[in-house]
Structures are given as C-alpha cells and as structure tokens.
Amino acid sequence: MSSPRKHAKAIEYQGRKLHEPALPLHLALAWIIIRVFPINLDYQYLSDVYSLGFTHQILQILAREVLEVGSQPATFVSLREETDKLLHAELPQVIKRNEKKRARGLELDFEYEKAEKGESWLGELAERFMDVSEGCTFIDSLEKELRERLDFSEDDDAKNPPPMDRHSPLGVFSRNLIKIHRKLSFDETAHLARQIALWCGVDHCGPFRPVTMWSLDRRSGMEDSLEKRMKSMQDYRAASSSGDYSGALASLRSFYDYQSPHAGRGQHQHALLNIATFHYASNGLDSARSAIDEAIRVARTAGDKECLQHCMSLSRRLQVETNSVAFTSTETIKIHQTPIPLSRLPEAATPMDELWSIKAALDLGEPVHVAFRRVYAALGLENQTSPPESTGTEDADRSYAKQWPTAQKLDFAGWHAAQSSLWGMMGSRALLELHEELAEGDLDGGTDGRLSVVFARAQRATESGDYDDALAQLIDMSTLQSMSMSAYHRWARVLWALLERRAQFNNDPDTLSYIAALSPSSPLSQGGPGGPARTSAHPSPISIEGTLDHNSDVSSPVALTQSHILSSLRHASSLLSAPSPALPHQILPSILSSLTLASSLSLWKIYRFAIVLLAETMLLMEGVPMAGKVVDEVDGIWAQLMRDGDAEGVMRGAGVLGRAWIELSLKSRVDEEHDKAVEYLLLSQQHAQRLEHRAACLETSSLLAMLAALRSNGHFPKSKFQSHDNAQVQEELVQRYWEVKEGQSGGQSRGIKSVADIGEIVKWVGVRIAEGWQ
C-alpha cells in the first residue's frame, strides 16, 4: 500500500517570503516557466515543443535561483546569456521536429512556430517593459498564465495534466508570486514595472515618479474599509474644487488602491478613466491620452460597456483637441456652408458629446447657422436614449435607435446656454435673453450652464459701459458660493478683463501695470478646438526643434477660427488707435479677411464691428473721396449696430459717421449735413463718456469745438445748432477738452484704489473656495 505524497521538504524550502528587491528576478523566472511550459489555446500542455534535455537544463536554472543555492542571484545579463545559449543549441532540434510534423500533414500550433524562431526569452521580456503601460499589462497577465500551468487536481490518472504540481518547489514559488501579485496596488504595479525596466537595462517611456509603496508582502487588501474609501473620494472632490491638484491625484489613487479578494481587476478601467479625466481638466493632455488609451483596452477586455462609452467620449475630445486645427499652414482659409467632415470631428454618440461638439465645430470653422443642427441633434439623442414605454403590442422593428445605457444625460441648463451663445453670435438679443432665462430656471441642471449665463451677462454689461452693474453681478454671493476652483478661474478672468478694459479706455498705464501685477501669471488658455479654457497644472513641454524663426515666410496654422478673426480685428484696431495711424494698405488685409470670414460664419455682430473699422480705414485714404462710401457702408448696418448693445461699436460708428459728414458738409456747405455731423458726434461723445473712453472724448470734443467755431464765424447759418452763443459753446467744449486731458493724471489714484479693492475680493474668494467655504 503506497503512502500518500508528502511535500514537507519542498515546503520547507519554499516557505520564505518574496521581498521587493528580488521581485524583478522572480518575475523573470516566472516568464521562463511560462515559456518552457507552453500551452495551446485549449489550455493543454504541449510537452513536445522542447526536448526533455533542454527542459531539464532550464529547470536546473530555475531551481538554482528559486532555492537560492547559487553564490549570488542571477542578473538580467547573466540569465539571458545562459538561456540564450541553451535556446541556440535546442533550435536545430525544434526545427527538425516541426518539419517532421509538417511532412506528416499536421497543422502546427502557434507555440511550435514561435519556438522555431529562436528568439531570446529574456530579450522579449525586456521589450515588454520599454513602455510602462505595456509592462503593467504584462504583470497583470502573469497570474492567469501561472495558474494555467499549476495542477490543482488530486487525480493522478489525468491524461494531460498541467506541467507543475502545486506542492512542488516551482508550484509553491508560483503560488507565492500569485499571492503577491493580487496585493499589488496601482502605484505598486507602475513602480514595479519601472523597477523591472531598470533591472533589464532598458529605457522606459514616461516620467519616473517615486511613489510611496507599502510592503508588497502586506496583509490582505480587504483591510481597506469602506469608510476609508469614502473619505478618499471626499478628499479628492475637496482638493479638486480647491485647486490642490497634487492632493486630488493622491486622493484619487488612494480611492482606487483597493484590494478585491478575487483575481479580477474590475476597478482598473474606472480608475484609469477618472485619472484621465483629472489630467484632462488640469491641461495634462498627454497624460490624459496615455491613461484613456489604457482605460479603453482594459474596459474592452472586461466588457464594461458603460465605462467604455465614457472612455470613448473623452478619447474623442482629446483627439479633436490635440490633433485638429481649423486650417493648416498650407491650406487656403475658406468656409464651406456644410458641417465639419467626420474625419475632423467624429460623430457624437451621447447627448453631451453632441453638445460639446458645438464649440469644437465653431472653432474648426463651421458656420453658426449650420452648427445649430447640433443643438437639436443633442436633444434627439437625449430622447432616443429613453425608449418608449412598452405596451405589449409593439412591432419587432423599433422606431428608436438602440443606444448603450449611459449616465451622460443632457444638461438642459447647458443646452439653453449654448443656444443663448449661438443667438448672441448671430445678433439676436431677444432670443439670447430668452434662453438665458431658461438656463437660469433649470434647477435640475449643473452649475456650469448658469455660471456661463452670469459671465455672459457681465461681459455684455461691460461692453455697454455698465461697469458697476457688471461688477455687482460678478461679486454677488449667490454666484460666488456655487463656484468650484475651475469656475473661479473663469470668474477671475472675466473680472480682470473688465478692469483691464476700463483702464485701457481711461488710458491709465499705472492702473494697467497694477492689474498685470495682480492678475495670475498663468492665465486660462484653450488647448485646441472644443477644449475649455483652463489653467495648466502640468509643466509645458520643452521643444527640441530649436527656436522659432519669426522672420520666416512660413505661415502658421489657424487653430481656432473665431480666435483668428478676433485677433485680426484687435490688430487692426490697435493700428487705427495708434498715435500715428498705420497706412491703409497695412490695415486693410486684416479687416477684409475678418469681414469675409465673419460673413461666411454668420457672425453678424463681429461683422458689423469690422464694417466700422473698415469705414475708419477708408477715411484715412488720402486723395480719394471716400466719405460718401463710408456713410453708405455704416448706414447699412446702423440699425442693427444700435440694437447689438455694443457701446464701443456705436461710439466708433457714430464717430466715423460724424467725421464723414464733416467732410461732406465742408465741400457742399449744406446745413443738414452739418447737423448730421453734430448729431453723430454728440452720440459718439455720449457713449465715450459712458465707456470712460478718454481718447474718444478728446476727439469728439475737439471736433465739436471746431464745428461750433465754424458756426460762430457765419458758416451754416440755417443749422439747427446755430445760436447767438456759439462762441460760448466753443469755449465750453474747449474747456471740457482740457479737463478731460488733464484728468488723465487726476484719476489714476482712484483707479488703482478700485483695482486694489477688487484684488482683495478676488483673493478672499479664492481662499474661501480653497477652504471649501468652511
């Protein structure tokens, strides 16, 4: 009677723990076990891939390192040389055996063909760890590969059992390695991948970031309680809202550093998705791309459709923002009255994706009236994701599209805010205000849509010269208490832009310098089409292409269409407002290109402002009577310009009409033309005073004083502004001119004091948000 098998000796050798410094070597030994014991797709051991002598020699190497009977542990180089020597000696026999099988008409499994290539086992291992993400994937796959080679059955009569008994020295070694593998956290897995890459002597991609590692032999990860995980998520949300990016990332990793008793890693795809979202929000687009690509692979492997849908949404946004531009440097800028092709802006799969695509499409050069279809496409997707209630008698063919279940429901506050913005671009004030009220009234939606409405209203109040009203809207407590740190940065940008515009119109360089000193050194920026304006928590990449030659003739690409138009108009406006205006032929290209693009894109508000700048440029042309054409151009848009609420556009438009009528009246001596000039100049002066535009006030005062002098000298006797006290009117206008000019130094201290008070408010709000309004 045979006694039962006992393995006390083997267990005595194998009972030691696997410590961190030895893990790279032990994972390399596990890889050698996997290669020397190949299995087919049916998980059957292929015992005839290698000869028994070769397998015996490999097992001797494994036993020496596992039992630590060598003089010193093997290094990667020594282990590779030793195994490669055996592989080269075995290769002719492997090829000979395979040829015999082919001669008999047998179909060879993949492992047979792979063996006859004679590739280095350790060389293949090193290649796996050149990329950290691939290295982590390899580490995750080790458990399954080792378990498939362990024999857990007690049946001694099995026909083709797995090659390793679980009580054997190699079996105990593999089980210990599996146990350690199950306890690895995310940080530990990434750290181990980098350690193996260093042990193999290969360069791994991605920055090396030291992480706080627990012992890899720590007790079961189930000691992590639910309370700890909830606290980690609360810390993550608090750190994100307060702008503590490093604390937010640490809390997020702590939340997902949770060990499950089973072998599956069901949390991986969700952790990677959240990390990618975090990097995307903090402008780390490269890090976000790396994380989301890995999340997509893991979600597909796990069959997690909902997570995969969220991953694909973020991946689509990253692809558009990082790879797309409106027009390349070699492409002619031309607007097509059709939607952006799917090759540049992929089709949306969820309502929020469709809503997001509106801004991306506008940035890529889609006309506003064409982009409107995306608003209702988002609403259509929202309705399709909720199938009609079953009546029990419906046909087999459903009338609605089959959709994945998704949590990406349409935010109706954002939906109305998007429509409000589109109507504002097209110049419809009534519809703009209607959708703003609807966005504010949606109590179930998020805060982003309502904050966008508040910021838009403040910007319109600033454009109309109601600076105090705009400030009151921005510093209202109902607005401040609902803001996160990202919304705070947007709020501060609107506030500093208001103060800067006011100081620029006042021609107050000291206040502008003070604003520049108080405003953040890293302002919000938009990375690409569709991307939000955000601060960067990641360092800027260092260019290795050399410095850019600004004198080269190579034109730069147009990344964002509307930003390109506004930049061209700002350039033209600065040339017109310079102390010595540029020549018309230097200004016209920027204005004419902006006019063409704005007209093609249905940006009518921008188009009308560009017409005013064009009229100002036409008056600068010497030797050509352009006053009549200027009047015709501006009169054609005057009614819409007055309804836009753009005080600067009205001020400049009235000013250019006043100068044009002065030129016409001096030639014709017609009193009605003189009266029109005075009326438009008075209107321009009224808006200049409202905007606190010092240069325009000086110009209109001087022109009105000149016209009063003409009337006092007997010109235009039938003018309705003709009176016996023209000389007194002239003196009052001249006195006002000098008051405005001398007031340029008297108002600086008041301007700086006002900015200082606002700066204290901005700092106080930032501190309160960082503290969580506690």
From TrEMBL:
A single GO cellular-component term on record: anaphase-promoting complex
GO biological process per UniProt: anaphase-promoting complex-dependent catabolic process; cell division; positive regulation of mitotic metaphase/anaphase transition; protein K11-linked ubiquitination
Domain Anaphase-promoting complex subunit: 236-319
Keyword Aminoacyl-tRNA synthetase carried by entry: no
InterPro entries xref list: Apc5 (IPR037679), Apc5_dom (IPR026000)
Alphabetical keyword list: Cell cycle, Cell division, Mitosis, Ubl conjugation pathway
Top-level taxon: Eukaryota
Family: Belongs to the APC5 family.
Protein name according to UniProt: Anaphase-promoting complex subunit 5
Annotated organism of origin: Cryptococcus floricola
Lineage of origin: Eukaryota, Fungi, Dikarya, Basidiomycota, Agaricomycotina
